[in-house]
Design goal:
Elements: H1 2-6, E1 10-12, H2 13-20, H3 23-30, E2 39-41, E3 49-54, E4 59-69, E5 72-76, E6 82-86, E7 89-94, E8 102-103, H4 106-112, E9 120-127, E10 133-150, E11 153-164, E12 167-175, E13 181-189, E14 193-199
């Protein structure tokens, strides 16, 4: 993604910070000093945006979509933290520390459609302190909870309940009538815990 971003026209971070009102939260998230200049693609200012919260960090920020590779979308914060989602399912994070380097999503997507095994596997890859890959393999099941009204919109709530070694976590997804994930709470790693993400209405 870096090569693609390097070719884009960049603007000062203050433009996006004023638009999103999220600069202090981003600075708290990564310890960026006030006044530090970070840049984001100019076209991202008018494109789709996503609000993300990370409870363990006390962070609340707005990310802009900066890249689409087939069915994977990458979203960027003003300090170059990025999150990648495959059809709304988190598959990678960068810049958080203890990042999710990669994750499979196909079995989760099959479960959304009522296909595949009742209990399925998800594999997540992380980097250790000595820069070695380590994997967590979770056994998961999908539960269709039913419709909920969120922000005045009727959405279908699904719960993905997983166990990976001693880690128990439940990912929550809210889908609209077209099957798009418009809001979610997803587990990143044992050190980070959950993030919540919701698409912003422009």
């Amino acid at each position: 993604m870096g090569a693609v971003l390097a070719m884009k026209v960049f603007v000062c971070v203050m433009a996006l910070a004023l638009l999103a009102g999220c600069q202090p939260a981003i600075q708290r998230l990564m310890g960026v000093q006030p006044g530090t200049q970070v840049v984001v693609p100019a076209e991202a200012l008018s494109g789709p945006q996503m609000r993300v919260q990370i409870q363990s960090r006390g962070a609340n920020a707005v990310l802009s979509r900066v890249a689409v590779n087939r069915d994977v979308e990458t979203w960027l914060a003003v300090d170059n933290i990025s999150l990648s989602f495959r059809q709304g399912v988190l598959v990678a994070s960068r810049g958080l520390g203890f990042d999710l380097m990669a994750a499979d999503a196909q079995n989760t997507l099959d479960a959304f459609a009522g296909q595949g095994a009742e209990v399925y596997r998800r594999q997540m890859r992380y980097l250790t302190g000595d820069n070695q890959s380590t994997f967590l393999t979770a056994g998961c099941s999908m539960v269709f909870v039913g419709p909920e009204t969120v922000g005045g919109q009727s959405l279908q709530r699904l719960e993905e309940r997983c166990q990976a070694r001693q880690n128990l976590f439940t990912n929550l997804f809210w889908l609209d009538g077209s099957g798009q994930i418009v809001q979610s709470r997803q587990w990143v790693s044992p050190q980070i815990g959950y993030l919540t993400a919701s698409l912003r209405q422009r």
